[in-house]
Design goal:
Blueprint: H1 2-19, H2 23-36, H3 40-50, H4 54-77, H5 82-92, H6 102-110, H7 114-121, H8 128-142, H9 147-195, H10 200-206, H11 208-235
Helix pairs in contact: 4-5, 4-8, 4-9, 5-6, 6-7, 7-8, 8-9, 9-11, 10-11
Length: about 240
Amino acid sequence: MTAAIVSALSTACAVWLWTGPATPALRLHALLTARHRRLPWQHLLRATLTRPGPARRADSWRRASIELCQSLSAELAAGRTPGEALTRAITAVDFPDPEALRPALAAARDGGDVAAALTAAAPAQGGEGLRRLAACWDVSLTVGAGMSALVERVGGTLRAAQSHRQDVAAQLAGPRTTARMLAALPVLGLLMAGALNMHPLSFLFGTLPGLLCLLSGTALDACGLWWTHRMATKAQP
């Protein structure tokens, strides 16, 4: 009887595997349905976690400005007019906020005030390249200097500054990691004391001297992290 049941189940599984949907199709359907069934708070949490910080956003703007200078220089070297070259260059570069460059794109197409549009589109952090490019545009129109040479010089300056920032960030990575490890050592001490059956939590939360030690240690730990972050931030260009 048992052998018959096992045989019937095995036959049913074989028929299902042979005639049922393919495994990739099932996985794709599960991913699509999971995406559609995601709750609103899950969408909000995902958007919050994936939102870039101010430093990363500024770095994206700087990289986009370097690409814009390179693309604009290539278009000018190909013999295109400044307005047409800027239009093609802005379209080719992936900016963090493409909508901010809409006025500059319209000014380049219609012959408007491109320098003012670039200055208005430049963010407070990371917009140095756009502001320098706007200054190049003004100098080229008022003095008659070659736009291609000015853009190449600005691009070289931006690349050198970006390389310097990357070197400084790489040198500061070690001290920052060391500071974070030192800040986490008290937690390791609590775990070791708990493993030795010394009851550190009862002392810290149950007695007045322990509470004072906890508050002072937490304050000193937070001040150390803040001071390290402050020194690292000042060391960056």
